[in-house]
């Protein structure tokens, strides 16, 4: 956790702009220009790799097949020390010229998608549009990182700090960012990562510097169950759950600071002709403001209580009453990277220099975790356009000009951060 | 379907009691007395077989393992022509002395339970109580039928009509009584079955002569889905479904004629951090009175419509609106067996003669199907006591006196119906 006093000191420190080269100077280097030419030449290959990776299923906790494929691609890209760590993250190093074991930049795209096993993930191509669940969130970024590594290698780019390229697990599902958490609290590079960049989504003008906190719960409503006809009149956990969700969806939340909720995954029941013994529902709540998130969480707990009480009052409890087992399944830390941090300044400068209007945003991404640990971190886009993340009709547009332009932004930010010799 | 005129004729026909032996006379026959002594002697074996069969899983449509075991037990009991038919019913014949291919009595217990694959079904025994999902509904009856066949065989009982013993599939789940439907509309004995007895549940004083009709639906709510944070504000099919269920549980229904409903099985959702694309819920509705069932069905359809409209009005439909796919998954025919039918009169007489107070009831059982075809049918209990059918804490009591007494009722009804030489 970045201590408030330290943060204040950093914010107050005069920025030594005059004594340093401007970050956008990297864009003029022969190294960068050469690498972007290679990205241009190899754009079709990058698109092919987006498709290849998208079509390997990677539900939360089931990223292994995609991780193995990605490891092989990292090796093929010429990185060093390529491996899959104990949590399932695939990673490899682009060696810098700095001291062995010195400060490093970690750039990561997440392997996992939100889509459960069995979801059709074949990519449908229409012109320059690719349609498939997970294609933009976050599979394009995985392919862009491979393209960076290859282009840097071929151009012979020398960077000061090691760059650790990662395809990480555990961004989407439960587990509180288990992939990045492992990398930064247990992994072999945990003490070396001084800057963390998550590449997630497409928009290259957006810099996520605020980590939206989230609270997630799985609530299991339980009751006595019974025969739908002969035991009719007994309390039904389905009715209690439904009342809870209906009331949950009436909770007012502010548009600013942005505060959101969702009732997302459900299941349960014995058979069509039985009052169920138990049913469950998962909830997701988020806010840019921790106090709004806390208020929402209290309102949530109150509607669960009311849902249970309403059902126990409405029907018979002679065989047992409805109870709710309220289990926290996610608690993503909120965090922020100060505008004065080099990574934020570099990102702004590079985005502007490449003709876009940088805008800071808050979101809940892998960068939340380093932010919460005090490691400067941002999330940036990988270029092109996209939409409908987390929906079955997710898409990206890989029209070459825009796709390449966006990808060149991230490369500039990465090289400026690692430092080009 | 029993035509009203035919039913009226039957009801109006003078019952030739004087010219026939009283049905309870069967209880005095050497054959019956001997068979009951064997049931007594072999009671422990029957209990063992209840346990053995209960511990073989038999979810709807997945009865094959239990059917195979039951077929072997029917062979072992000495029945003829034992087989599993194309629908999955296990059956065998106790030959009568009547003409080959003549009228027959079918007595059936259902193999399937309501419990899905993976439900723990190990029997827990506490004194004379057996606890396990499905132990009473309807596994005890399967074991009782085996005990009947063995006792009749050993006693050398000669019956006039063939008795077809069946362990049938498809009573609990969807499929509109597919097991008995096959037996009576397609199976090899379909034209020979002139009386149908379903043994289901425990109470030996109850005669189900009314078939409660049921309507079952699976409703799938669909919407655009999206990211829980970035797409917050879009319509959520989970909210529409919850509103529907909450409203459904406010529909008033009469206690008499008994009319019931249940929201029973649910599922769906993409991931905890996604607005789902689709979720589903299954509904069961029943009534002793077809017009009450029709009223309930209309009220149900209205709440689904309202649930969808409420959600589409509450949140944004810019990416698409909520729709509900309303699919009928069950439509069990209602039916009735007239009090003047021999099977009903025999059951009343035997139950009374054995010291119990017979009572007619309505339920939704395998007997609904023959009733709807005009085949005289009842459902009777297999003896002992039991409770909590369709719940995980289902139990039966096999205390010997009561268990045997109840079982001897069914045997008397069966022999009176088939006719003892």
TrEMBL record, chains A, B:
Domain Peptidase M20 dimerisation stretches: 213-306
Alphabetical keyword list: Hydrolase, Metal-binding, Zinc
Alphabetized SUPFAM superfamilies for the sequence: Bacterial exopeptidase dimerisation domain (SSF55031), Zn-dependent exopeptidases (SSF53187)
Cofactor(s) in the UniProt record: Zn(2+)
Domain of life: Bacteria
A molecular function GO annotation: metal ion binding
Protein name per UniProt: Peptidase M20
The organism of origin for this protein: Sphingopyxis bauzanensis
């Amino acid at each position: 956790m970045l201590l408030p006093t330290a943060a204040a000191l950093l914010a107050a420190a005069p920025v030594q702009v005059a004594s340093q080269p401007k970050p956008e100077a990297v864009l003029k280097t022969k190294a960068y220009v050469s690498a972007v030419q290679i990205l241009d030449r190899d754009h079709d290959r990058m698109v092919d790799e987006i498709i290849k990776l998208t079509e390997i299923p990677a539900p939360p906790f089931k990223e292994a097949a995609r991780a193995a494929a990605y490891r092989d691609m990292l090796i093929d890209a010429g990185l060093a020390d390529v491996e899959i760590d104990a949590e399932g993250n695939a990673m490899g190093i682009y060696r810098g010229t700095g001291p062995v074991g010195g400060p490093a930049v970690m750039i990561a795209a997440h392997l996992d998608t939100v889509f459960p096993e069995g979801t059709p993930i074949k990519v449908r191509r229409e012109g320059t549009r690719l349609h498939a669940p997970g294609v933009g969130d976050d599979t394009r970024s995985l392919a862009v990182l491979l393209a960076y590594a290859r282009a840097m290698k071929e151009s012979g780019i020398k960077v000061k700090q090691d760059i650790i390229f990662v395809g990480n697990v555990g961004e989407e599902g439960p587990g509180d960012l288990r992939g990045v958490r492992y990398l930064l609290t247990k992994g072999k590079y945990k003490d070396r990562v001084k800057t963390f960049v998550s590449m997630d989504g497409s928009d290259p003008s957006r810099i996520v510097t605020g980590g939206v906190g989230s609270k997630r719960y799985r609530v299991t409503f339980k009751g006595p169950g019974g025969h739908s006809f002969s035991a009719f009149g007994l309390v039904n956990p389905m009715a209690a759950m439904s009342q809870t969700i209906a009331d949950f969806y009436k909770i007012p939340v502010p548009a600013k600071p942005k505060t959101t909720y969702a009732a997302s995954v459900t299941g349960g029941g014995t058979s069509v002709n039985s009052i169920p013994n138990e049913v469950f529902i998962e909830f997701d709540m988020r806010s840019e403001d921790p106090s709004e998130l806390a208020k929402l969480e209290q309102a949530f707990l109150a509607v669960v209580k009311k849902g249970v009480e309403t059902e126990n009052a409405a029907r018979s409890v002679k065989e047992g009453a409805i109870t709710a087992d309220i289990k926290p399944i996610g608690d993503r830390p909120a965090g922020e990277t100060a505008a004065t941090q080099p990574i934020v300044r570099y990102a702004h400068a590079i985005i502007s220099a490449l003709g876009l209007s940088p805008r800071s945003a808050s979101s809940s991404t892998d960068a939340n975790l380093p932010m919460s640990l005090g490691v400067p971190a941002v999330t940036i886009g990988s270029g092109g356009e996209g939409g409908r993340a987390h929906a079955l009709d997710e898409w990206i547009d890989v029209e070459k000009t825009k796709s390449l332009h966006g990808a060149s932004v991230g490369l500039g930010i990465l090289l400026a951060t690692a430092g080009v010799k």
